[in-house]
Structure formats: structure tokens, C-alpha cells
Amino acid sequence: MYQAFYRAYRPQTFGDMSGQQHVRRTLQNALLQGKTTHAYLFSGPRGTGKTSAAKIFAKALNCAEAPAAEPCNECASCRGIMDGSDTDVIEFDAASNSRVEEIRDIIEKVRFAPSNSRFKVYIIDEVHMLSNSAFNALLKTLEEPPAHVVFILATTEPHKLPPTIISRCQRFDFKPLSRADLTSRMEQVLEDVGTGYDIQAIRVIARAAAGGMRDALSMLDQAVSFGGDGVALEDAVMVTGSIGEELFQDIARSLAEKDAAGALSILERLVSEGKDVVRLTEDLITFFRDLLVMKAAPGMPDLYELISDPEGVSALVEQFPESRLYAFIDILSETRQDMRFSNHARIYLEAALLRMIQADGQIPSAAGQSDSGSGAGVEELQLKVGRLEQTVLELRQMLKDGVAVRDGAPSSGARQAAPARRAAPKSKNGFNIQEGRIKDILSRATKEDIQAIKSNWAAVLGDMQKSQAALLNDAEPVAASNDAFVLKFKYAIHCGMAAGNPDFMGSFSQLLTGRTGTAYEMVFVPEEDWLRIRESFIREHGLGKTQEKGDRPDDRHPDEMAAEEALGLLGESGALEQDPIVEEAEKLFGKQAVHVHDD
């Protein structure tokens, strides 16, 4: 009966294994030195030699010539393990026997000594498929088995194993096989069966196998059956579903000539032939990677993965600068990621080809617009950005110093000539207090402005998000002019959080403007700093004394009159703060539920 290549050419010694040098050397040294342990864990991708290595290790343990680095494959024990008749080497498929009952059957038989061999070896394949109960049942036996028992666990998904199982095993990680290892093994197989082959066909199969020897030999078996007399490049391309190198070159030429119709027609033909669009995208990335390597390191053909004839592609390479090849790879990589979440992979690849046609060393947007511009335009833009940054810094400094900014910021030269001012004071939590700005608002404060804000205060809080309105639970407006108002916070930390939240500032300002019809500037201040600034304002304007009866209001300076009006507002605010009835109502019903109306 005919046997598939991957079964007929399964390695029978460590020397026959492809790759995995670290695994072979460690196991062979342990065999020679008599330092084998009771449990091993072989993990890695499919087709990398885990089960084969387990069988070879079992033969070496029970070989008549042990201790030896290799099994002899001649003694009764080695032949029994090779043909599956040795009852002391038990292969257990956990994928189809995952219940705890099967594991208990193993545990019951573990204590019996081997009948013909030195060791009883249990090879449990796909061990990650066992149930939690089965793992728990195996745990104690795996940790302290009888001296004549060796467990070899094989899995492709070690992350699904309990840490308690992994910690009781010597772990060996099998790596994907290199293309050189795959190619070498397939050449040996074809020479052994006497079949001719094209080396490019073998490389195509090795690339499609993605590091798995079993996949490579299976596809090679198909290619041999398909070709009949030998394995040609066309046979390998057809069997693996890959694309010929000529088509990649045709797509690249269309991109170089900015021929959108040509590139899309090639894609249409490939899709109609049943080619996988995702696989095509990955192969395009590899092809342009080869072009980039050829351009950067022309003397290293061994690094090429898709290109087999560098001389035939040399003229094509000259048409692409390195920056454009980088852009191609970035666009295709981004497209590959987007395809994961869509059922219309073809549309994504078509859009990617159009973007690649328009790419001139930079990645255009999805709409096909390039971000490239003239050098003069870039310099002009940088100049404007620098000016804006300087203006923003000046405005911030002026606000910290308490200077009102109405008609625009001064020039940088005027700013440098201005006298140095004292740094703005800070509250306990580091919040900058705009004392000068607050006093400026107080000097222009009116009763109408503060009433306009207070009358709409509850409505504004109701319109805000609850998370933002929570910052204003212990805040209230205490003074207002025609373009700004002072908002007092009971706690400095809430004041700092509100001032440092741009979303809150924008939402609050927009809602207040919509309610009052005036775009007020907000100045935040903690309560303790507000009391200090208010007292300082009263002292500076000499408003603590009662006005004499003989004084006529018309004889006073306008600033003094405005300040006295502000003092009246401050007095009202203070009275409200000290009113015991209001305080008691706030304690009973909460500050948000209490509204004081001035009749």
C-alpha cells in the first residue's frame, strides 16, 4: 500500500531530524550521561518534529545498546516501537480521549513494570485538549511517577496547559523549520524516489509550507502526483495556490508606469482563477521586500524569497526609489491588517494598488491624497507654527500675571520690553491663582451680570454631563463683569481638576453662552484664595469706611464708584455665605437643591 511522503520519510534517528539542533543536542547528552528525567514537554507549531522526536527518544531509552546517542533501529525493542507493536510505548491522543476516565486508566496501569523494555513511555499528543479534571488526575502521577515510567507530552498550544503541569516537565520549544531545511529534505526525498524536479518548484513549496515539514512533504506528494514525470515550477504553483514570479513583475511594472487599468486587470484575473487575496497581499509584501533588499544589498541573492532571477528584475528595480518601496510595504501591511475585519478583501487590495500608484515616497491617505508638498510650503508652515506657539506662550503668561487681553497680544518685542512681574501665586495643590485678573473683574463687576449667570446656573448644570456637573457641586459664581466672571470652588483640588480639563471647559463655556447670550471668560479660584483676594481688593480701594452723608456720588471717580458697587456685591455674597438659614437648608437638602432669589 502506498504511503504518503510524510509517513514514509518520518525520521527514525536524531540525525534524520531537520533543524531543532537545541532539542537534539540536549536529549542526546542526557542519554549519554544517564540524566534523563521523568517528564518532558515538547511544544511548537505543527509539523516541526515533536511526535517524531518523542518516538526516537523512546527508542533510544529502550535500545539494547543504551546508553547511546542514537537508537540502533536493529534490536527487538527499536523494531517494535517502529512498527507500533511494543506494548511498553503507549501513544495517547488527548484530542479524542480528553475525559478524566481515560487518564485514570493510564494512572492505574502506570504502577505495572514494563514487560519487555527498560522504560514504559507514555507519549500524550495534543495534551492541551485534556479537561481540567483530567489534568488534576494526572498531576500527582506526573510529579512522582514510578522509576520505570517516562511521560512525553506534545502540544501546539502550551499556553492552554496549567502552570502546575508545565512546572513538572522539562520543556523543549520546537521552532518552525527554515526554508533551507525544508528544501534540503524535499530534495532528499525526490532523489530517493527517483523523481526529477525544478529547484524553483521546491522553493515555492518550502515557502508555502511556512516552517512545517509535514505540510511541505504533503504538498510535495501532491505536486509529484500532479506532474507525473517530475516536479515543475508550474506544478508547484498550481498545487500550493501560489502566484508565479512573472505576475508579480507585471504588477510592479504597472505600478511603475502608473497604469491603474493594467494592475487591476491582473488582480481581476488572479481572483477569477481562485487565488486567495490575503495570500496575494502577503506575497506582494514579500516581493517588494525582495526588491528593497536587491536595491540595498545587490550582492546577496540568498536573502531573496520570491525572486529567482535577479538579473531579469534588475531593470525593474531601477524604476523604484527606496522611499517608494518602503511606502508600498507600509500600504500593503496596513491593508493586510484591515482585511482581517472585512469580508471584502478584494476591495481593500484594489484600493491599495491605487494608493501605491499615487505613492511617491510618502504614504497617501485612503482617499489618495498625498501629503507631499514643496519645500517652500513646508518652511512657510513651520514659520507660522512657530509664530502661533510664541503667541500662545505670551497669552498664557499674561493670564498668569493677571493682565486682561482684549485687543490681541503684544508683539514679542514689546513683550520682552515689558517689566518683569511677580510670579502668580499658587494654591496649596499647585493651581495658579489669577489674582490680577480677579481684581480686574471685581473693579468692573455689576449686579446685572452676576444675576444673569446665577439665574441660568441651574439650567446649565442640568444640560451638562453628570461626570462634568459633579465638579461644580461645591462651586458658585461670586462676581461678574460684562465679559468675565469669577467661579469659586470650595476645594482647591476640584478647582485644579476643572481648570485642567479642556473638555469640561469647552462644554461648560458653550452651554453658558447658549443660555446667557454672552461669551464669558471663566476665572477659577479656590474659596480660601477668594476670601484673601476679596479682602485685599477692599483694602486697596479704601472701601471699608462708610461713605459720609455729605459726599455726593457725582464727586467720586468712576473707578471708585465701580469698586463700591463691587463691594456691595461682595457684601451680598458674604451675607449669603453666612446666612444660617441658607446653610441649614443646604445641609438638609443639598446645595444643588437650594436656590436663593433676591426679591
What would your notes on this structure say?
About 10% of the residues have low confidence. The chain is α/β, with parallel strands linked by helices. The termini are far apart. α5 runs parallel beside α6, α8 crosses α9 and α9 packs parallel to α11. It is elongated and about 115 Å long. The protein has 5 domains: 169 residues, P-loop containing nucleotide triphosphate hydrolases (Rossmann fold, 3-Layer(aba) Sandwich); 62 residues, Helicase, Ruva Protein, domain 3 (Orthogonal Bundle), CATH 1.10.8; 114 residues, Up-down Bundle (Zinc Finger, Delta Prime, domain 3); 42 residues, no CATH class; 149 residues, DnaA, N-terminal domain (GMP Synthetase, Chain A, domain 3, 2-Layer Sandwich). The chain has a 5-stranded parallel beta sheet with strand order 2-3-4-1-5, covered by helices on one side. It is an enzyme of class 2 (transferase).
Provide the CATH topology of the largest domain: Rossmann fold
Give the overall pLDDT as a whole number: 80
Backbone shape = elongated
Q: What is the count of distinct domains?
A: 5
Q: Termini distance?
A: 107 Å
Low-confidence stretches: 362-376, 404-423, 545-560, 571-578
Calculate Rg over CA atoms: 41 Å
Could you give the order of strands across the largest sheet?
2-3-4-1-5
